[in-house]
Write the structure tokens for this entry.
Amino acid sequence: MNVRCPHCQKIFEANQQQEHLLTYAIGKGQRLVMLECPECYWDVPLNPGDLLSNEPQKDEASEKETIAGPVNCPKCADGIMSYINDGNEEFWGCGECGYTRT
């Protein structure tokens, strides 16, 4: 599976571990997987379902998902707040401590 890094714009092929993660995520209907770019080592947010469509990979977030740069979690200060839309609800959450806000 080919993935384009939104940071360095390089296209890389997912390694075996990443492909296993993507296959598992597709089977579970997950909407967000983070892969590491082997070129620049930045995290690449990816919707595994997009790999099954014929549309090109989306690198830009919607207006709701966009914030002015990364925001540290106000609870633990170690995590980054991320916009989550699981189909049932939309909220901001921290992947480190689990803190959420709407």
